[in-house]
Protein backbone atom coordinates (compact mmCIF):
# COMPACT_ATOMS: atom_id res chain seq x y z
CA UNK A 1 0.00 0.00 0.00
CA UNK A 2 1.41 3.33 -0.82
CA UNK A 3 -0.10 6.71 -0.97
CA UNK A 4 1.03 9.14 -3.57
CA UNK A 5 1.31 12.25 -1.44
CA UNK A 6 2.16 15.43 -3.24
CA UNK A 7 5.43 16.81 -1.91
CA UNK A 8 4.98 20.04 -0.01
CA UNK A 9 6.76 23.18 -1.12
CA UNK A 10 10.14 24.03 0.32
CA UNK A 11 10.79 27.05 2.51
CA UNK A 12 14.00 28.73 1.40
CA UNK A 13 15.38 31.81 3.15
CA UNK A 14 18.04 34.07 1.67
CA UNK A 15 19.90 36.25 4.17
CA UNK A 16 22.94 38.49 4.20
CA UNK A 17 24.16 42.03 4.71
CA UNK A 18 22.74 45.00 2.83
CA UNK A 19 24.28 45.08 -0.67
CA UNK A 20 25.17 41.38 -0.59
CA UNK A 21 22.91 40.88 -3.61
CA UNK A 22 19.98 39.14 -1.94
CA UNK A 23 17.19 40.57 -4.02
CA UNK A 24 18.88 39.98 -7.39
CA UNK A 25 19.79 36.44 -6.36
CA UNK A 26 16.26 35.70 -5.15
CA UNK A 27 14.93 36.77 -8.53
CA UNK A 28 17.43 34.59 -10.42
CA UNK A 29 16.62 31.61 -8.22
CA UNK A 30 12.91 32.17 -8.74
CA UNK A 31 13.37 32.24 -12.54
CA UNK A 32 15.60 29.15 -12.53
CA UNK A 33 13.17 27.11 -10.44
CA UNK A 34 10.17 28.22 -12.47
CA UNK A 35 11.96 27.25 -15.67
CA UNK A 36 12.38 23.79 -14.22
CA UNK A 37 8.64 23.60 -13.77
CA UNK A 38 8.37 24.26 -10.04
CA UNK A 39 5.64 26.35 -8.51
CA UNK A 40 7.53 29.09 -6.71
CA UNK A 41 6.73 32.34 -4.95
CA UNK A 42 8.96 35.17 -3.78
CA UNK A 43 8.21 37.07 -0.60
CA UNK A 44 10.21 39.69 1.25
CA UNK A 45 10.43 40.90 4.82
CA UNK A 46 9.67 43.44 5.94
CA UNK A 47 6.53 43.42 3.81
CA UNK A 48 6.07 47.18 3.68
CA UNK A 49 2.50 47.00 2.39
CA UNK A 50 0.77 45.52 5.41
CA UNK A 51 -0.44 47.59 8.33
CA UNK A 52 2.69 46.91 10.39
CA UNK A 53 4.75 47.28 7.20
CA UNK A 54 3.66 50.88 6.81
CA UNK A 55 4.86 51.74 10.31
CA UNK A 56 8.12 49.89 9.68
CA UNK A 57 8.62 51.74 6.40
CA UNK A 58 8.17 55.11 8.10
CA UNK A 59 10.70 54.09 10.72
CA UNK A 60 13.28 52.83 8.22
CA UNK A 61 12.97 56.02 6.21
CA UNK A 62 13.57 58.09 9.29
CA UNK A 63 10.13 59.70 9.29
CA UNK A 64 9.22 58.29 12.68
CA UNK A 65 11.01 57.36 15.88
CA UNK A 66 10.20 54.15 17.70
CA UNK A 67 11.33 52.49 20.87
CA UNK A 68 13.85 49.72 20.00
CA UNK A 69 11.70 46.99 21.51
CA UNK A 70 8.51 48.25 19.99
CA UNK A 71 9.86 48.38 16.43
CA UNK A 72 11.48 45.00 16.96
CA UNK A 73 8.15 43.44 17.84
CA UNK A 74 6.52 45.08 14.84
CA UNK A 75 9.09 43.49 12.53
CA UNK A 76 8.25 40.16 14.15
CA UNK A 77 4.49 40.79 13.87
CA UNK A 78 5.08 41.54 10.20
CA UNK A 79 6.27 37.92 9.81
CA UNK A 80 3.51 36.44 12.00
CA UNK A 81 0.94 38.16 9.80
CA UNK A 82 2.28 36.10 6.88
CA UNK A 83 2.82 32.81 8.71
CA UNK A 84 -0.53 31.19 7.98
CA UNK A 85 -0.25 32.03 4.30
CA UNK A 86 3.26 30.57 4.16
CA UNK A 87 2.04 27.34 5.72
CA UNK A 88 -0.89 26.96 3.38
CA UNK A 89 1.19 27.73 0.26
CA UNK A 90 3.80 25.18 1.30
CA UNK A 91 1.20 22.52 1.88
CA UNK A 92 -0.23 23.27 -1.56
CA UNK A 93 3.12 22.40 -3.09
CA UNK A 94 4.36 25.94 -3.58
CA UNK A 95 8.02 26.57 -2.83
CA UNK A 96 8.69 29.95 -1.23
CA UNK A 97 11.83 32.03 -1.51
CA UNK A 98 12.01 34.47 1.39
CA UNK A 99 14.20 37.56 1.14
CA UNK A 100 15.24 38.24 4.81
CA UNK A 101 13.51 36.56 7.72
CA UNK A 102 13.86 36.09 11.47
CA UNK A 103 17.66 36.11 11.26
CA UNK A 104 17.69 39.72 10.04
CA UNK A 105 15.01 40.39 12.61
CA UNK A 106 17.17 39.32 15.51
CA UNK A 107 20.55 40.66 14.40
CA UNK A 108 19.58 44.16 13.28
CA UNK A 109 17.83 44.83 16.57
CA UNK A 110 20.61 43.30 18.66
CA UNK A 111 23.18 45.36 16.73
CA UNK A 112 21.77 48.48 18.35
CA UNK A 113 23.55 47.39 21.52
CA UNK A 114 20.67 48.42 23.68
CA UNK A 115 21.55 46.73 27.00
CA UNK A 116 17.96 45.51 27.39
CA UNK A 117 17.78 44.02 23.94
CA UNK A 118 20.08 41.01 23.67
CA UNK A 119 20.20 38.59 20.77
CA UNK A 120 18.33 36.07 22.93
CA UNK A 121 15.60 38.57 23.72
CA UNK A 122 15.36 39.50 20.07
CA UNK A 123 15.01 35.87 18.97
CA UNK A 124 12.20 35.04 21.38
CA UNK A 125 9.23 36.38 19.36
CA UNK A 126 10.39 34.28 16.39
CA UNK A 127 9.87 31.05 18.33
CA UNK A 128 7.05 29.13 16.66
CA UNK A 129 7.39 30.63 13.19
CA UNK A 130 7.97 28.20 10.30
CA UNK A 131 11.62 27.22 10.20
CA UNK A 132 13.15 27.23 6.73
CA UNK A 133 14.22 23.94 5.18
CA UNK A 134 17.21 25.74 3.78
CA UNK A 135 18.98 28.94 4.77
CA UNK A 136 21.19 30.44 2.08
CA UNK A 137 23.49 33.00 3.60
CA UNK A 138 25.20 35.34 1.17
CA UNK A 139 28.50 35.85 2.86
CA UNK A 140 30.49 39.01 2.27
CA UNK A 141 32.50 41.34 4.50
CA UNK A 142 31.16 44.75 5.40
CA UNK A 143 34.24 46.25 3.68
CA UNK A 144 33.30 44.51 0.42
CA UNK A 145 29.70 45.66 0.53
CA UNK A 146 30.87 49.20 1.26
CA UNK A 147 32.96 49.03 -1.94
CA UNK A 148 29.84 48.17 -3.91
CA UNK A 149 28.77 51.64 -2.95
CA UNK A 150 25.36 53.11 -2.85
CA UNK A 151 24.20 52.39 0.64
CA UNK A 152 20.83 54.03 0.58
CA UNK A 153 19.54 56.66 2.90
CA UNK A 154 17.75 54.29 5.23
CA UNK A 155 18.38 53.66 8.88
CA UNK A 156 21.01 50.92 9.45
CA UNK A 157 22.83 51.60 6.19
CA UNK A 158 26.12 52.62 7.79
CA UNK A 159 29.48 50.83 7.98
CA UNK A 160 29.41 50.67 11.78
CA UNK A 161 25.99 49.04 11.83
CA UNK A 162 26.82 46.60 9.02
CA UNK A 163 29.91 45.29 10.72
CA UNK A 164 28.00 44.66 13.96
CA UNK A 165 25.28 42.97 11.96
CA UNK A 166 27.83 40.71 10.30
CA UNK A 167 29.27 39.56 13.62
CA UNK A 168 25.83 38.93 15.06
CA UNK A 169 24.80 36.89 12.01
CA UNK A 170 27.85 34.69 12.65
CA UNK A 171 26.91 34.30 16.30
CA UNK A 172 23.29 33.54 15.56
CA UNK A 173 24.06 31.00 12.83
CA UNK A 174 26.48 29.20 15.11
CA UNK A 175 23.88 29.02 17.92
CA UNK A 176 20.82 28.09 16.02
CA UNK A 177 21.84 24.61 15.00
CA UNK A 178 19.76 21.88 13.55
CA UNK A 179 18.97 23.27 10.20
CA UNK A 180 20.57 23.40 6.88
CA UNK A 181 22.69 26.52 6.43
CA UNK A 182 24.65 27.07 3.25
CA UNK A 183 27.23 29.84 3.28
CA UNK A 184 27.59 31.22 -0.20
CA UNK A 185 30.53 33.45 -1.07
CA UNK A 186 28.86 36.55 -2.45
CA UNK A 187 32.01 38.27 -3.67
CA UNK A 188 31.92 36.40 -6.97
CA UNK A 189 30.14 37.58 -10.12
CA UNK A 190 26.35 37.44 -10.10
CA UNK A 191 25.91 34.37 -12.31
CA UNK A 192 28.49 32.35 -10.41
CA UNK A 193 26.73 33.10 -7.12
CA UNK A 194 23.41 32.25 -8.77
CA UNK A 195 24.73 28.83 -9.82
CA UNK A 196 25.78 28.06 -6.28
CA UNK A 197 22.41 29.07 -4.89
CA UNK A 198 20.66 26.88 -7.43
CA UNK A 199 22.91 23.90 -6.71
CA UNK A 200 22.32 24.25 -2.98
CA UNK A 201 18.59 24.41 -3.61
CA UNK A 202 18.16 21.54 -6.06
CA UNK A 203 19.02 18.92 -3.45
CA UNK A 204 16.10 20.08 -1.29
CA UNK A 205 13.28 20.25 -3.76
CA UNK A 206 11.34 17.19 -2.75
CA UNK A 207 10.88 17.75 0.97
CA UNK A 208 8.73 15.09 2.62
CA UNK A 209 9.49 15.80 6.24
CA UNK A 210 7.04 17.99 8.11
CA UNK A 211 7.65 21.68 8.35
CA UNK A 212 9.34 22.56 11.62
CA UNK A 213 9.17 25.70 13.71
CA UNK A 214 11.81 27.88 15.33
CA UNK A 215 12.87 26.90 18.83
CA UNK A 216 14.43 28.96 21.61
CA UNK A 217 18.10 29.79 21.19
CA UNK A 218 20.38 27.43 23.06
N1 LIG B 1 15.32 44.57 9.18
C1 LIG B 1 14.71 43.65 8.41
C2 LIG B 1 15.15 44.58 10.55
O1 LIG B 1 15.70 45.44 11.25
N2 LIG B 1 14.34 43.64 11.14
C3 LIG B 1 13.71 42.70 10.40
O2 LIG B 1 12.98 41.84 10.96
C4 LIG B 1 13.90 42.68 8.99
C5 LIG B 1 13.22 41.64 8.14
O3 LIG B 1 15.25 46.45 7.81
F1 LIG B 1 18.13 47.24 7.18
C6 LIG B 1 16.13 45.63 8.55
C7 LIG B 1 17.18 45.16 7.62
C8 LIG B 1 17.28 46.31 6.65
C9 LIG B 1 15.89 46.89 6.61
O4 LIG B 1 15.75 46.64 4.30
C10 LIG B 1 15.06 46.41 5.44
P1 LIG B 1 15.40 45.98 2.89
O5 LIG B 1 16.32 46.76 1.99
O6 LIG B 1 13.94 46.25 2.65
O7 LIG B 1 15.76 44.52 2.95
From TrEMBL:
Record domain Thymidylate kinase-like: where: 14-196
Molecular-function annotations in GO: ATP binding; dTMP kinase activity; nucleoside diphosphate kinase activity
Keyword field: ATP-binding, Kinase, Nucleotide biosynthesis, Nucleotide-binding, Transferase
GO terms under biological process: dTDP biosynthetic process; dTTP biosynthetic process; dUDP biosynthetic process
InterPro entries: P-loop_NTPase, Thymidylate_kin-like_dom, Thymidylate_kin_CS, Thymidylate_kinase
Top-level taxon of origin: Eukaryota
One annotated Gene Ontology cellular component of this protein: nucleus
Pathway: Pyrimidine metabolism; dTTP biosynthesis
Transmembrane annotation, as ranges: none
CDD domains noted in UniProt: TMPK (cd01672)
Any matching Pfam family: Thymidylate_kin
EC number: 2.7.4.9
Family, as annotated: Belongs to the thymidylate kinase family.
The protein, known as: Thymidylate kinase
Organism: Endocarpon pusillum
